[in-house]
Amino acid sequence: MLGNDVRLVQRAIEPCKAVLAAARENGKILIIHTREGHRPEMVDVYNHKNRNNIIGSQGQMGKILIRGERGHDIIDELYPIKGEAVIDKPGKGSFYATDFELILNRNAISTLLVCGVTTEVCVHTTVREANDRGYHCIVVEDACASYNDEFHRVAIAMISAQGGIFGSVTTSEELINYIQKSSVGDA
User: Fold this and answer.
1) Contact 111, 186 (CB under 8 A)
2) Number of CB atoms found within 10 A of residue 41's CB
3) What integer pLDDT is reported at residue 186 of this predicted model?
4) Does 104 have pLDDT greater than 80?
5) Residue 2, SS3?
6) What is the pLDDT of residues 117-173, one digit of tens each?
7) N or C, where is the chain less crowded by C-beta within 10 Å?
8) How confident is the model at residue 184, as a pLDDT?
9) What is the pTM of this model?
10) Alpha carbon distance 39, 143 (integer Å)
11) Bridge partners, 114 (sequence order)
12) 36-47 pLDDT, tens per residue?
């Protein structure tokens, strides 16, 4: 509805799918899925966030960004399996108005492996929120994407600038090799 080319963000699916498979195979990595969406009554949507009136409007797969609608669900290729938490977030970051931090603390998690879309919005906001809370973030560059290649490039550069001001950056291949060769369990 915004005219974005979804093929650009779809590039992250296969790398994300490969990282997810490696994490599942490892069996020690806590997997948490997040998705942005709002209550059906839209009581958690600020006016300035919906100034173009797209949130809640009818799209091809239901009401846009509304929890419970088909378009709000996680895509089949990356769908959670039993035991994997799903965080519904009313904002861009995974910490805002969610129990994400509670789950991380309960499981003694100190490092986050971050994949998803869009790099410059939801990924970046989550990484910045996590950094402020003392978590180390490893952003999987090719398992993240944007509707704008330049935004993706700059967002990734900002994360790793100044020796990793917000976190570290890796590729799906490097991360999968590390997961398969080590006893990763604190991510």
Assistant:
1) yes
2) 9
3) 46
4) yes
5) coil
6) 999 999 999 999 999 999 999 999 999 999 999 999 999 999 999 999 999 999 999
7) N
8) 63
9) 0.94
10) 28
11) 139
12) 999 999 999 999
- Locate tokens 């006893």: which residue? 183
Which burial class, exposed, middle or buried, applies to 127 when counting CB atoms under 10 A from its CB (0-12, 13-18, 19+)?
Answer: buried
**Overall fold of domain 6-37+83-181:** Rossmann fold (3.40.50)
Encoded tokens for 145: 């994407």
Query: In angstroms, rounded to a whole number, what is the distance separating the alpha carbons of residues 128 and 158?
Result: 11
Contact 158, 150 (CB under 8 A): no
Q: Distance between CA 148 and CA 104 in Å, rounded?
A: 31
SS3 165: coil
User: What are the extents of the domains in the chain?
Assistant: 6-37+83-181
d(CA 24, CA 18): 10
CB 9 within 8 A of CB 151: no
- State the virtual CA torsion across 70, 75, 81, 85 in degrees, nearest 10: -80
Q: Decide: 125 and 97 in contact? Cβ < 8 Å.
A: no
| pLDDT tens-place string over residues 22-75 | 999 999 999 999 999 999 999 999 999 999 899 999 999 999 999 999 999 999
Phi, psi of 174 (to 5 degrees): -65, -45
